[in-house]
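Recall that a protein's primary structure is simply its ordered list of amino acids. Everything else, from secondary elements to tertiary packing, is in principle encoded there. The following example makes that idea concrete.
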Amino acid sequence: RHPGSHQCAGGNAFVRLLQQGLVEGEMLLDCVESGVEPLCRPGLTVRNRGQSVVCFVMGGTLTHGATPLDFQVSAARQRTAASNPFSCFGNRARHMADTPQRSLSPDDSLPPVEPPSAAFLVQLFLVPGLIVTIIVCVWLAFHWLAHLGNDPQAYVRTLRRNNEGRWQAALNLANDLRGPGGGALKSDEALATELGRILDDEAKSGRTGEQTQTLKVYLCRALGEFSIPAAAEPLVARAENVADPQTARAAVEALSVLQTNLIAADRAAADPAALTGAVIAASRSDDVPLRLAAAFTLGVVGGPDAVDRLLVLAGDASDDVRFNAALGLARQGREEAVDGLVEMLSLPDVPPAAAAADRGADAAQSQRYKRALVVVNALRGVALLVDTTHQPPPKSILDRVQAATQDPVADVRSSAAAVLKKIERLSATPTG
């Protein structure tokens, strides 16, 4: 053997010895090139220091040159209880000084790191993306099918049928009128005309059932959502028919909404006198809710005839009718609204305990709520009067507004504070 360093080739048995910690110290090895597979790992440098030493794992015969060397397992060198002994034989075998035992690193037990394959990327990204795309497409398809028949003529055809399907069409129409695309429907003159015809047909049919009455009220309110003059004519006809106060009230309320929409769209009713006359006729009804609605609508419609009727209604026997008349007069900028507004602002708040002892808990709560609503509406009426006249209100109203800032109800206090700020800004604005 020639001293020095050289590379051994083949085998991994020696590597396993090192990993299992079964080799102590530095073994002097001589690789056998024949007989059995060499026991050195490829690339492992082994130093030969002039001694012929062969390290082997299992019993057998190594052929060294022409002389076969018999060897056997040495029990004295057994390292573990797993009956896996190792021994080294040679002409003068010896070990060097012992070195620390090499333990197994955690990284040695991990699988090799490999770049992701194309199949793995497809499973990770492409397949979930396809599933999400399919779900979205299915949802869009159902959404499209659900709205496929929601066109104006489909509404008309369904509403003319005397079956349960008309209520679904009524709901869809109401949602569409108030939805993002409701502007086009509100300007559809053909749709408004057809809805008016359905309303007239229902009124002339003589049917008095609950469903018929509900449909007439619904049609009145639907026509009120339009912003074209064509929607006024069928509502005027129903408002004049005070023999059916429920439908007449719905028509009068719808006329106030329609008038507001027409003003916002810079349009006007085709026959303003007929519209005002129908509301005035409704205000002469014995039905208090109908007169109440008429008083409010007259304030929205305006005009000399409407104001004259409001002055009469300001002395109505019903508190609610008087209050609505005062609000209507304030909207028109009339000083005659002052007395009614003062009356509304002067309503006292009843403590919950006293009200409950007098009327019962539910009735007392309802009465307190109504009183707060009346006072808040009166404060809005004061704001309307200020906006219309561009003048501060009379002292009788101003004192009530200031007192309202100390009201037990928070909504009343906040509304009163807002009105006072409006009056202060008006007073600070130079005139002329």
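The longest strand covers residues 60-64. Residues 118-146 form the longest helix (29 residues).
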